[in-house]
Amino acid sequence: MTQAALAMTTALRSSMEFSAPPAPDRAPAPPAKPSAPTGNHRRFPVWVLGIAAGLGLAAGAIYVPQGFVETTDDAYVQADTVSVVPKVSGYVTALHVTDNSRFNANDLLVEIDPRDFAVAVQSAEADLQSAQASKVKVTEQLAEQAHVIAAAQATVDSDRAQLQFAQQQLARYASLAKDGTGTQERWQQAVSDIGQRKAGLDHDQATLAAAQDQAGVLQSQSRQAEAAIVRQQAALAQARLNLSYTKIYAPMDGTVANRTVQTGNFVQPGQTLFSAVPTDVYVLANFKETQLALMRAGQKVLVRIDAFPDRRIDGHIDSFQRGTGSNFALLPPENATGNFVKVVQRVPVKIVLDDPTSALRGVAPGMSVEPTVTIAQPPRWVRPLLALIGDPAV
Questions:
Q1: Which of 28, 117, 344, 348 fits 321 for a cystine, CB–CB 3.0-4.6 Å?
Q2: pLDDT above 50 for 306
Q3: Is the pLDDT of residue 273 over 90?
Q4: What is the pTM of this model?
């Protein structure tokens, strides 16, 4: 481009700038705000303060309750389950329950064929009647023997009286023979009569002794008969018991579980037919040994059930097991070895549920729970925080 063209272009731009319309009037600018302080005097945003408050509340919810409660997730529902077993063998003729059936105490559950046991009862009754008849027979023989003894005793008394009279006669005939008024033959006859009377007395005394000995034998037989009666009474009672065992009744209110018997099965004594799970249950919580310092029997417990998250059950501590769980294990630890690692032990704690039976419907043994034990009463300022986590101490 030539210098003349460059000068023309410059002049044209200058004229356009001077010919532009003036800008409209603007409002006066507001006064400038003082600048924020620099260095360490900066203001934190609101969201940072909110996060800090939330973290503080969370930390309080975690650590503050530890001074007032103890909890564990190593806890389970337990029940004193009873195994229903027969006492006698036989075929099952009737089964009045099925899987998961509910029953009440003294309800008839199982029936076993009773015919063999009914026959045994009849046989025992006959044996008892025989023993009682033997007792009656011996009693009558004793009464008869008493009369025999009385007769023998009367004979002996008669012999003694006759012997005494014979002795008097001998003395009289001896005196007569001595002064010559009596005959020698009469005196000899009196002497012979005394000998006969003595022999008769000895014979009758022996008969009396034999009768008395026979009474002793009969008394012994009477005692044997009494013992036989007692033995047969016991046999009859056992037979009736065996007959009653053919019907199995419910020991308490509960539910059938783990049933293995069917109608028509042959069962043996001691064979498990099914388990009777009682309605009343409790919780067995395995707390760490470091948690037991302030725990006492009677303290309140809030139980959360894993199967029912919205259901919470009240309870209290019943007792503590005298020994850790590992101490009663099948293979207890042997710490007297070269290598030892200290492990925090757990102690089973029995927790009794205070809610009525109707509130425990559906709570079965083996379910996992989380008990929370109140070990101290919290102050008022802590209670709102504990209420947020549903603590039982509130």
A1: 348
A2: yes
A3: yes
A4: 0.65
Residue 2 phi/psi, 5-degree rounding, is -80, 165
> Strands, E, within the chain: which ranges?
69-71, 75-78, 82-84, 90-95, 102-103, 108-112, 247-249, 254-257, 266-267, 274-278, 282-288, 300-305, 308-320, 346-353, 368-374
Query: Residue 321: pLDDT above 90?
Result: yes
CA 235 from centroid of its chain's CA atoms: 30
Residues 6+ apart with CB under 8 A from 222: 135, 138, 139, 142
**Sign of torsion over alpha carbons 298, 302, 306, 307:** positive
Token representation of residue 87: 């006492």
Structure tokens at 12: 């044209």
Residue 23 confidence (pLDDT): 46
How many CB atoms within 10 Å of residue 269? 11
H or E element that contains 62 = helix 46-63
- Residues in the chain, how many? 394
Query: Tens of pLDDT along 188-204?
Result: 666 677 777 777 777 77
Domains of the chain: 60-79+280-388 (2.40.30.170), 82-113+247-275 (2.40.50.100), 116-244 (1.10.287.620)
Q: Is residue 184 very low, low, confident or very high in pLDDT (cuts 50, 70, 90)?
A: low
What are 181's two structure tokens? 């008024």
Q: What is the distance between the alpha carbons of residues 84 and 277, in angstroms, rounded to a whole number?
A: 10
Contact 297, 319 (CB under 8 A): yes
- Pair of tokens at residue 369: 């729970």
Q: Alpha-carbon dihedral of residues 62, 64, 69, 71, nearest 10 degrees?
A: 10
C-alpha neighbours within 13 Å on the C-beta side of residue 221? 16
CA–CA distance, 350 with 337 (Å, rounded to integer): 33
Adjacent-strand bridge partners of 317? 351
One-letter amino acid at 371 equals P
